[in-house]
Design goal:
Layout: H1 11-20, H2 33-69, H3 72-98, H4 112-140, H5 148-172, H6 179-208, H7 213-240, H8 250-258, E1 263-275, E2 278-287, H9 293-308, E3 312-318
Parallel strand pairs: 2-3
Antiparallel strand pairs: 1-2
Helix pairs in contact: 2-3, 2-5, 3-4, 3-6, 4-6, 4-7, 5-6, 6-7
């Protein structure tokens, strides 16, 4: 399949060049879509930055408060917050890298950096949950006495901070569609769940002196964290393996393309995700001899954009005069 150099061409020249070679390439960041994408990016950055400032501020407050008071609980919680601060910072850096323009060595730019950040954040969520479960197991049989009153105050401060961070991401960012933002959001919600669990455990211990409540509730929180982390890991791995977007069925696309008058066969059809909200498609259309290839190509491009929301498409038109070997994938 031919690759075209998009630099140094006017829009009209490029369109004619693509049609001559049986290709049309439409980038999801082009034309009227660019302003919308830029707006989403700006909101995502603001939401992440606000969450990073809040989480980082609470981390330093707990760290220096722990040093001043000698509280191990404060110091250990600040270590947990350090993990979340690092994850939020990584997500923000990934978003900054993602807007860097494509180069000769990176033709898609650095959009995949966001997926890598989401994968890393998903792994760290598993590690954090593992540490919680291990510590809970050690404490279950001989639960130590806990200063439940102080613990509840610390948990309340942490919960308030995490809810503010989560609210900032929910209000300003795309937590549903952007996997990078969602992984950062899950880190914050994991902390919030931990704070809720600590409040409940502190209340039970304060009322009944039943210190086993601390490890039991910790395990329940860890399992909830693992559930969210597994979803992020699975989606990130699927994208990195060039899997078909979850909302798209390639058989549906093939049937839709076959419905175009003049199209006799569709083969080597591939659909994959470059990053959250940016899907790409490539394929070959076999048409009848003497059919209008330009008209069929335009219909196909309009169809995949309008029906399947794929703007980044490359399609090759073929007739009986073109022969090539079987492609590997």
């Amino acid at each position: 399949m031919n690759n075209h150099n998009h630099q140094g061409h006017t829009h009209e020249h490029q369109a004619a060049h693509d049609q001559e070679h049986g290709h049309v390439h439409k980038d999801g960041h082009g034309h009227s879509h660019s302003g919308h994408s830029h707006s989403h990016m700006t909101h995502n950055k603001r939401g992440l930055l606000t969450a990073l400032i809040i989480t980082g501020g609470v981390m330093f407050l707990e760290f220096f408060g722990g040093l001043a008071t000698g509280s191990l609980a404060l110091l250990s919680d600040s270590g947990h917050m350090l993990s979340d601060t690092a994850s939020l910072a990584l997500s923000l850096v990934a978003m900054i890298f993602a807007v860097k323009p494509p180069s000769a060595k990176n033709s898609y730019g650095f959009h995949r950096f966001e997926i890598m950040a989401a994968l890393f954040n998903g792994v760290t969520l598993f590690v954090i949950a593992g540490f919680i479960i291990r510590e809970a197991w050690q404490r279950f049989f001989e639960p130590p006495a806990v200063a439940s009153g102080t613990m509840m105050i610390i948990a309340a401060v942490g919960l308030l901070a995490n809810l503010l961070s989560a609210w900032s991401l929910m209000r300003k960012s795309d937590t549903k569609e952007n996997i990078n933002i969602r992984s950062a959001y899950l880190h914050i919600m994991g902390d919030a769940l931990g704070s809720v669990g600590a409040l409940l455990a502190g209340l039970v211990m304060n009322l009944f002196s039943w210190y086993a409540a601390d490890p039991i509730i910790s395990v329940l929180v860890a399992l909830l964290i693992l559930r969210g982390a597994w979803g992020v890991l699975r989606q990130a791995f699927h994208i990195l393996m060039e899997g078909t977007p979850l909302a798209i069925n390639t058989n549906d696309i093939k049937e839709a393309l076959m419905s175009i008058d003049g199209v006799e066969a569709v083969h080597d059809l591939h659909v994959w995700t470059i990053t959250s909200g940016l899907d790409a498609l490539s394929g070959h259309l076999l048409i009848g001899d003497h059919k209008d290839s330009h008209s069929i190509l335009q219909q196909a491009i309009n169809l995949v954009e309008d029906k399947f929301a794929i703007q980044h498409a490359t399609l090759q038109i073929e007739d009986s005069s073109l022969k090539h070997g079987e492609l590997r994938v």
